[in-house]
Amino acid sequence: MMMKSCRLHCSIVAVALFAALLSAARSEDVSGPVSYKDPKLPVEQRIEDLLGRMTLEEKVNMLSGTGFESRPNARLGIPAIRMADGPQGVRIPLPHPRRAARAGGGTNAPSAGAGGSLSWLSGMLRDPSIPTTAFPSGVALAATWNPDLIERVGRTIGEEARTLNKDMMLAPCVNIQRAPQGGRNFESYSEDPYLASRMAVAYIKGIQSQGVIATVKHFAANNQEFERGTISVKMDERVLREIYLPAFRAAVCEAGVWSVMSAYNKLNGTWCSENPYLLTEILKKEWGFKGFVVSDWSAVHSTLETVNAGLDIEMPKGEFLNRELLLPLISSGKAQQAVIDDKIRRMLRAMFTIGLFERQDSDGGPIDTPEQRAVARAAATQSIVLLKNADGVLPLTPRKVHSIAVIGPNAGAARVGGGGSAMVRPIYAASPLDGIRLRAGTRFRIGYAQGCAMEEEGAEKTTSEASADLIQEAVSLAATSDVAFVFVGDSSRIESEGFDRKSLELPPGQNELIEAIAKTNKNTVVVLAVGAPVLMKPWVDQVSTVVNGWFGGEEAGNAIADVLFGDVSPSGRLPVTFLKEWKDSPAYGHYPGENGAVGYDEGLYVGYRHFDKQNIEPQFPFGYGLSYNTFEYSDLKVTPGKVAPNQPVQVSLNVRNSGPRDGAEVVQLYVHDVQSTVDRPVKELKAFRKIVLKSGQTQTVSFTLDKTAMAFYDPAKKDWVAEPGVFEILVGASSRDIRLKTSFDLTP
Ligand code: BGC
User: Residue 478 contacts by C-beta under 8 Å, 6 or more apart in sequence?
Assistant: First the structure.
């Protein structure tokens, strides 16, 4: 009896205390000068001041957003964080159906429902967005191998976000390209964690330099769209650390990213949004992340687990992190106040740091300015990869070439980007045909033929007679032209968020078209617009020239013309291996998974690591790309030859432009751990530099390597370990074109 009444008394006291907490500070006047409103005070002081004034209800209210905004607090003057999708530019869906209808469909807009099972996603894909500058997609940005340029892209996107009154970009996407089918490969940077890290850091620094929060996504191991909302990705700790986490770690530790988005999938059986190992142990404790974790849209599945695991804000609404579900958990002590406070601190820290409380809305300004467009064009031009130029057909020379056939389903259409939340609708977009016509002027005769219909854009309804006519028209044009360009590849309905690619082949009809043109005109140049590897048999051996233009954003057509006409020597390099057949892929046999799980059984051997280990000849290797120039590598030196633990290693070499034109080269440095007690890849990219050299010019390129270039992750020690022994340094123009080698000794 005594016990019972004591318990009753205690709970009455607890409820009374809780009620007092809820209403604390409610009557306080904050209209005058209070500390948190003073931008001159240190951020941490402002946070504590504001936190002390918030009621528990107000705090809980901030743990979920609405649509694309966090919840503001009118009483205390806490603004909303206004978010926009990326990463190809600022994507803001038009909110109102009537406005949407007035604006018409977007360039390359996918059909309704392309997003698969998530109904809100199919809605989003249907809705056109506000026109903004469309930059090349993630993989294309990585193909530039130019972090300085990517930082400029990030800056420009941040600038546009500010003009449009957005405070946070849901970008970049740094997930590793594992299986070539991955629907969002186009959005991601690379198969290689080091390249992805360099791109992520540059892009994030650019965005955040404009006072806009960047969001690195999707944490972690969201590498396929197949069952992305439910699948459990299984991999071991070393693989997670060495392949799938480095770009996130670099985003946090090097770029100081303010937001991390948790992924839809599970990792080793636990949802990423309620994964304490990922969100608290690694991200917040080990990496010291000071910002906040935002859920992917509808990726939350629980209240208590999610709150305790380290997720800070649920989007796009509070299905689980709401007052009804959370307040009782707090009052019963299951969820700690301190945990809630930590979440608010994290959001406020980002908001104060970017100056959100002092921010005046812009009343709009120019979007897609000539300067912004120039950045998009530079990125598109530098992303283009010349894959084959066996007969020197490129660059076009007006002396030899007078007539050009522009053929293909991607010739007259601007393939700006892939589909889904990354799809940006530009104000204008140049198709390859536009770009070529503009550049050619009256000096060349330009003819155009579609050649074949595009899948999901009428191909299904085209009769076999109509298809034969389309090919015939293209063949006749090619027969009477000096050069035939065949523009093929995918569209945003084929490569998109929400589903993986059905096939690695080019869409139906395109192989046949290329073969027919190649038989007719020996100067056939195939130009791809794809966001991921496609199979190129049999035509790759029948044509002399192949170019990959990716999904190059709004300037893709002009950028292609820059390269085809030789105004710019191509300097893009593959950030992902192009394979000859599916069975060559490291994911073969371990994709897409079954019974709700996918095992990453290839382990560390993703991308070129697999092709090297298995000694498989890729169609085109990682890091590969030709130019109109030749470059000579010489004088590779490493100092010191014997390296003490934690001592940096200096590597230098000379690179000479031995070709006839000015141009850029991408010098790549790979490391091979020769003596190791654990299995290690044959080589791993650890440094690179894009340099621009005048014809005849020589430049010394220097790199500093530290322990991170030598270490592997040891799960037993829970640390990175660089074992003593010989390390080989391999420098070259691609992962399969190593020009110089040397080595050093790491001493015990
Ligand atoms: C995507 C995210 C995106 C979010 C908001 C989700 O479907 O996975 O990358 O930022 O939608 O549009």
Answer: 405, 407, 484, 517, 520, 521, 524
